[in-house]
Write a structure and sequence with these properties.
heterodimer, A: mainly alpha, MetI-like fold, 1% strand, B: mainly alpha, 2 domains, two-stranded antiparallel sheet, 11 helices
Chain lengths: 281, 301
Amino acid sequence: MMKAKEEIVKVGLCAAALLSVAVLLIVVGYVFINGIGVISLDFLLESPYRFEYGGIFPQIIGSICLVAVCLIFAVPMGVASAIYLAEYASDNVITRTVRFFVECLAGIPSIVIGLFGLIFLVYYLDFGICLLSGGLALGFMILPWTVRASEEAIKTVPQAYREASLALGVSKWRTIRSVVLKSAYPGIITGILLGMGKAIGETAVVLLTAGSGLESFLPKSIFDPVASLPVYIYMMATQGHTSAAYSRTFGASLVLIMMFFVISIFALLLRNRYIRRMGRR
Amino acid sequence: MNLLERVRTCRFKRMDFGTAEKIVEKLLFIAALSSTLIVFFIIAFMFKEGIPALALGWDFFFGMIWRPSHNQYGIFPLVVCTFIVGIGALVLAAVIGIPAAIYLAEYSPAWLRNIIKPCVEMLVGIPSIVLGFFGLIVIVSYIRDSFGGYGECILAGWIILAIMTLPHVISISEDSIRAVPKEYKEGSLALGATQLQTIKKVILPNARSGILAAMVLGMGNAIGETMAVLMVIGNPEIPFIPSSILDPVRVLTSTIVIEIPYAVWGSLHQQALFALGVVLFIVVAILNLITTAVVRKGAMR
């Protein structure tokens, strides 16, 4: 009797676990089935025209540009913060405050970061709604993730490496550059790639700071408004209302998911290759 | 070059090293301050913009009517809807997520775990806008066909948000179940308790604070989530307190996104929208502080 109950509970728990897998498969599968039909070379290489025609070329390029600007800000800042926190800082009030605020920033909802980008970057600094504003706002959003991932990675470097380098008379900064960062970089890159995945799918921030229309042009400078895939999906889904528009939306969704998968696979491959190389040594 | 000279240049180099090192350390420190600075700027600018609306006081926080065209900015229905949508989604995520976490930590064979775990992690990666669009096309029309109404409603919001919070709930709960010392479990099993009894009486009570932290954190995520929710909950022109789960509602985040393009810059409307941002920020900050406190208390025990 008791045995039977145990088994039933076990099956129930297993069903709950499998349900979460099913959700993923259903969502991705549904988007794939409905999106694959519209994907063609024309769709990927043309500009959108109204809701029912054209492709998503400016959106793809725009999303890539936004992520690039975001990384140019967030990576140096994040890695530098992490180096300071992990290597230089002693555990005192200042560093505890810094850590607290990193956590704080991670907890701020993206829409609030979007509003801040709108008031601070777009109006106060007068950048306007443009690539630079959008990229920087995205950078604010993923900064805490790059800090955290880099700090974790730096902390896993064995203390003996540092000591060996310092014992050879190498200065501290040089040790960090050529020993610590070199061993920590797969972890750092993985963190950055995860941040990229977050940034590329983010809609609210981009909608408020980088451009909110169906732009059909490529940005000429960082002060031009820029199209992006999430905003395209948002516009088409809320204002399209025709099946042609919806199937295009599925196509764009599929491209966005694929971009995310490619980034994740890169992260995995890079990490594995590095681990192998370290093993061979 | 004679030896003496070499030694001298060498010493010079080393002195340069010293100053360079100090400069590097200062630069790194400045970089480390950037996050702090950004948070301060966010707080300062959000409050500066939001204060005229926040200063309405009672009419703002407990006003029942949000109607920008009539200059009425009462956020009470928005706040109530936000919590209804957030709590419901969390309950749904907990009902599926906690059993899933128990299975992964206690029962699952390694090969199955190696399939389920990456899938759960991938679920986090699906962009919220894509999930929202999926919800709009699939879930909303399903609800419309089988229960009637517009289809865009609280129920749809619950389902979509539950999908979004599920991965967080699963992974944090699983971690805290795994963190329960092995001896506890072995002790219980050695006394003749079944695995199920052990889970119920030993493991879950010990993992409670971690699971609770997962819930509060999930709540923060659910309340701050914007795009996915926006696309499935209907967003009626004038928000009201819903009487059934098939009613369309409006939450804080969706109101901001929908109205900010129409708000005249510098008007009370725009300031009220920033005040919504402030409210959202404060609610999420409080939830995060509770999480930290729960985790710390758990760790102390």
